[in-house]
Amino acid sequence: MKLARDTWLIFQRQFQLLLRNPVWVFVGVFQPVMYLLLFAPLLKPALNAPTQAEAYKIFVPGLLVLLAIFGGLFQGFGLIAELRAGVIERSRVTPVSRLALLLGRSLRDVVSLMVQAVIITLLALLFDLRVSLVDLLLAYLMLALIALMTSAISYGIALKVKSEDALAPLMNTVAQPVLLLSGILLPLTFAPGWLQGIAEWNPFAWAVDGTRALFVGDLGDDKVWQGLGIIAVLAAAGVIWAARQFARSVR
Amino acid sequence: MIETRGLRKSYRSRDGRQTKTVDAVRGVDLNVTEGEIFGFLGPNGAGKTTTLRMLATLIEPDGGEATIAGADLRRDPAEVRRRIGYVAQGGSTWDESTAREELVLHARMYRIGKAEARRRAARALDAFQLTEYADRKCKTYSGGQRRRLEIALGIIHEPMVVFLDEPTTGLDPQSRAHMWDEIRRLRTDGMTVFITTHYLEEADALCDRIAIMDHGEVVTEGTPTDLKREISGDVVLVGLDAGATPQAAQLLDGEPYVNKLETVEEGGLRLYVDEGATAIPQILRRVDTAGLGLNSIELHRPSLDDVFLTKTGRSLRES
Fold this sequence. Notes:
Order of helices and strands of chain A: HHHHHHHHHHHH
Largest sheet of chain A: none
Strand content of chain A: under 5%
Number of helices of chain B: 11
Radius of gyration of chain B: 24 Å
Helix content of chain B: 25-40%
Distance between the termini of chain B: 31 Å
Largest sheet of chain B: 6 strands, mixed
Helix content of chain A: over 70%
Oligomer: heterodimer
Strand content of chain B: 25-35%
Shape of chain B: elongated
Shape of chain A: globular
Number of strands of chain A: 0
Distance between the termini of chain A: 29 Å
Order of helices and strands of chain B: EEEHEEHEHHHEHEHEEHEHEEHEH
């Protein structure tokens, strides 16, 4: 149980530092909130949805997945600051678990994402969105797995490139097509066949589909377990890969 | 306490289209005994830090063997980690944390229980005169305070060996003297201390034994006193105009009391003699009768820089 103990130790430390400067949680949620307030009202007519609530059931899940992807992907910047301060090297001379060094940080990111997701959900409730608690919790599980994966990948890449100047363009180049190919802003059912074909290879498209099915209340839809399964496998792979970066020499 | 044989590390670096291999450390043999302050002296880029990082399990050696505090570096790095402390050159504390938090966290990373970690943190704060600032953020600390905290972190788990990479670089003279006392105290507490430095005075004043490193190799090893004694006798620096130097060199080269003679680039001579006090009058007489203008004459007891110079042909101060 050394892993659990070490992970809890790193998580506590990271979470304590986050609480000391909680403004970042709100900075992170600002953009999605703007989308929710200023973009979502266009959707009812655009999607030809019968009601505002119907439109939100399509849009809010996508927005939450977007939040999870981006919230995770940009965590690497904090790690580069830690690398520079020598904190990572100091950790690596101790016997502390390398996997815990990663997991403690990624779990902090998951928790801060959950806070943001709750804020978005509560705001959406004001716009007549209704979703059952079970469906919502499963959707949050999906978001947690996405954030775990993207933050782990971001940490792994940060350890490899070691500089903000390299990380920023890299993340933007990856995130942009991934975002557009996942049907987050508008469902891919509107897309021409070739675009749908490409999107099938994008795991986040599956995640968005699964989350949307949950918001519609269609728990039995295959898309739910497919999305959860794909993301869970990728999250595990991402965590293992990134933990190996922590174990390898870092300079 | 530390024994290495043939420790090697090379890096591949890209130079335009060509990849070339840089041998950072080319076979280091060391034998550090228990309870001593051992110093690695050498210019920047000599391979001191790379060697230290290998011994601290941070980078994997390409070849060679090492046993540290009884644990095998290659086969059991996890055990080495438990037995050593390491203080990096560039700092290791987080601006937004306090000294107490850092100490407790670090002790806990060594799997020390929470209550015991708190006790040790309090004791370390006290020992390193940090209690007053214990609950302030690290970003408010002075350079000396921060360095003291970093050393306190490095020994929070009471290691048998502690590695300090350039522990006094960037400190003002007063803080440096203070840090020397702290390092001596580690030895008194029974720890073996391994430091790297490029300060001659530091190696001389602080270390029981030193190894001089240059271009990835240990060029010589011993106590500072022995190393200086090896360079038999004193050094007399004779200041001359560049024009007069060759003639004076010719003149003095055959003198029986001159063991070795070197020309200083900007003009002048460096004479290695057994006894400076008796050699100087003779040198003066010789130069004077030849009618050569003498600008200055200086007597030097050999320093570690002279040791470095004889072994590498360069001065440490210049490199």
